[in-house]
Amino acid sequence: MMNRVTIVGAGLVGETTAQILAEAELCRELVLIDIREDAPQGVALDVMQTSSFFHFDTRVTGSNEPSAMAGSDLIIVTAGVPRKPGMSRSDVLDVNLKVIDGIIDNALEYAPDAMILMVTNPVDVLTYRAWQRSGWPRHRVFGQAGVLDASRMASFIAMETGFSSLDITTIVLGGHGDTMVPLPRFCTINGIPVRQFIDEDKLQAIIERTRNGGAEILSLRKTSSAYDAPAAAVATMVDAIANNRRRILPTVALLDGEYSEKDLAMGVPCVLSEQGVESIVELELNDEEWTSFRVSAQSVRQDIDRIE
After folding, report:
1. Quick one: pLDDT band at residue 63, thresholds 50, 70, 90?
2. Which domains does the chain have, with CATH numbers?
3. How far is 41 from 259, CA to CA, in rounded Å?
4. 8 - beta bridge partners?
5. Active-site residue, selected from the candidate residues 83, 89, 176, 211
6. Is 55 in the active site?
7. Pick from 82, 77, 43: which is nearest to 62 by CA?
8. Higher pLDDT, 18 or 176
9. C-alpha 270: how far from its chain's center?
């Protein structure tokens, strides 16, 4: 259990993340920060009032002051402008870049020893920016993307096969967007390769649906993007860190030679522990997978070039 976790952004993703973290008692104190007057205080009070139902003692508070993040072990960033139907994650880059710069400056002042878990889109680029602006070691700055994408792929496989999602393992690399790289060769159902149960046409349809998983929900909801699954994905990463589980989870990490890439942040399998990103796992990709990975890397790099 960590002492203090701060969530910057008390919107739907931030609120749902707070509820899950509190229920799981992954920290002793949970702080929500938002620029909207009284909004984080209201969310915190609402979450606290579920404590007797879910039997947790985590103290949840809200504030409009950045100084409330002082002493945080982990800062989760969900603040920013969400995309609207028809928009790509890159379309919100310019606006969210300014938001993230301010948050990182506050972290440097009030919580210089924290780790940062970026959720705001475009998450690959903004994770890179957080690392660049903070100057912190790369193991302390990382982003959420692949955990969510892999979960979406697993759910689609479960829907297609009728098998329990508990037995399905998936892996997704690359940028968190249209060029993400789901890897069916590494997907299994209780250790059995997924291709034994799904023919190639249906498997390719699942891959494409995974790439557009967020857009599909956005088009259906119309008034908001996804928040339940993203919050659960964040909580999974926080659990691995808080409990030093050393879980291998697809994470947006800063690459320094891994996968033949350098000075780039994108989704790769990482060992998550109390250190944050303890190490990066390099998979042996085939030619087709390498090609897709490089296309994805180039797409992320183009957005990074826009901010430098």
Report:
1. very high
2. 2-143 (3.40.50.720), 146-307 (3.90.110.10)
3. 43
4. 33, 77
5. 176
6. no
7. 43
8. 18
9. 13
